[in-house]
From TrEMBL:
This is DNA protecting protein DprA. It comes from the Bacteria. It comes from Candidatus Gottesmanbacteria bacterium RIFCSPHIGHO2_01_FULL_40_15. Belongs to the DprA/Smf family. Residues 4-213 form the Smf/DprA SLOG domain. SUPFAM superfamilies: MCP/YpsA-like. PANTHER family: PROTEIN SMF (PTHR43022:SF1). It holds the Pfam family WHD_DprA. Residues 223-277 form the DprA winged helix domain. Gene3D superfamilies: 3.40.50.450, Winged helix-like DNA-binding domain superfamily/Winged helix DNA-binding domain. One of its GO terms (biological process) is DNA-mediated transformation. InterPro entries: DprA, DprA_WH, DrpA_SLOG, WH-like_DNA-bd_sf.
Length: 286
């Protein structure tokens, strides 16, 4: 564990200007000042929907490829999904905790915690094994907003804690970005409200984020797309909506058994996933 005080030359510059002041940080993992140069805080609903997961699956790969550090708060839902995706892509991620640096996380979180500690960075304003308390999370949120160049909100209800982080972003004059969601979804009311009020820039692709932040997109080659056959038609069908195998078969005019085989192949390639009987595209066709 490493302790950084505000007077330390390596103390994150973004935290020196925020209030309430951050006097000390405790860290585990790989601390370098370069982590914060191109960084994005990603926050959102703890009750993340499949739509939220698809947004993360689509937005993060180009950002990670472009060397952007993903910062979040290690809570279940959008936070952990963002950490996991960044690690899966071989990128950099920072977890900012709302409890003492040495407090033991639950059994279901320990694998992710250790992976972030090994490959990324864990930060807390709180020492020892101080257990999480409600008042700690707004203090954590201000750190997440202060560390990054911008805050991206993916799914947030009207009274979501993510809106506290959004408020800090505005207070600290950071870019506030939000992904719109279905008007029928309770966990999109907060994000849609941020966009409607003009407080947040609407984001519908990774390119939007890169352009707003004036960050250069990676020149890495994108994943090869499916060949232009019936599997390609299935991918395009699923790009805008989730469908059952019967609905897909009806749309492409093929027997269910043949479509099932093609879906299995697409799943093996990582281009499609199935949840609760419906299929989703994981490909970025933009």
């Amino acid at each position: 564990m490493r302790v950084l005080e505000a007077a330390d030359k390596n103390f994150p510059a973004g935290l020196k200007k925020i209030t309430p002041k951050v006097k000390k940080l405790y860290s585990k993992g790989n601390f370098t000042k370069n982590l914060f140069i191109k960084s994005l805080t990603v926050v959102g609903a703890r009750k993340m929907t499949q739509y939220g997961q698809r947004v993360i699956d689509n937005l993060l790969p180009p950002l990670v490829d472009s060397g952007i550090t993903i910062i979040s708060g290690f809570m279940y839902g959008v936070d952990q999904a963002a950490h996991k995706k960044a690690l899966e892509l071989g990128g950099k991620t920072i977890a900012v905790l709302g409890w003492g640096i040495d407090w033991s996380v639950g059994a279901s979180d320990i694998k992710l915690y250790r992976e972030i500690e090994e490959k990324g960075l864990i930060l807390s304003e709180f020492e020892n094994d101080l257990k999480p308390q409600l008042w700690m999370f707004p203090r954590r949120n201000r750190i997440m907003a202060g560390l990054s160049r911008a805050v991206l909100v993916i799914e947030a209800a009207q009274n979501s804690g993510s809106l506290i982080t959004a408020g800090f972003a505005l207070k600290f004059r950071k870019k506030l970005l939000a992904v719109p969601g279905p008007v029928t979804s309770a966990v999109s009311q907060g994000t849609n409200g941020l966009i409607k009020s003009g407080k947040a820039v609407m984001i519908t692709s990774a390119s939007d984020i890169l352009n707003v932040m004036n960050w250069h997109e990676s020149v890495k080659k994108k994943k090869s797309q499916p060949v232009n056959d019936s599997k390609d038609i299935i991918i395009k069908l699923l790009a805008d909506q989730s469908l059952t195998v019967d609905e897909i078969a009806l749309s492409v005019g093929q027997p269910v058994d043949k479509v099932s085989v093609k879906l299995s192949l697409l799943q093996l390639k990582g281009w499609v996933e199935e949840k609760e009987g419906k299929y989703y595209s994981k490909m970025d066709l933009t």
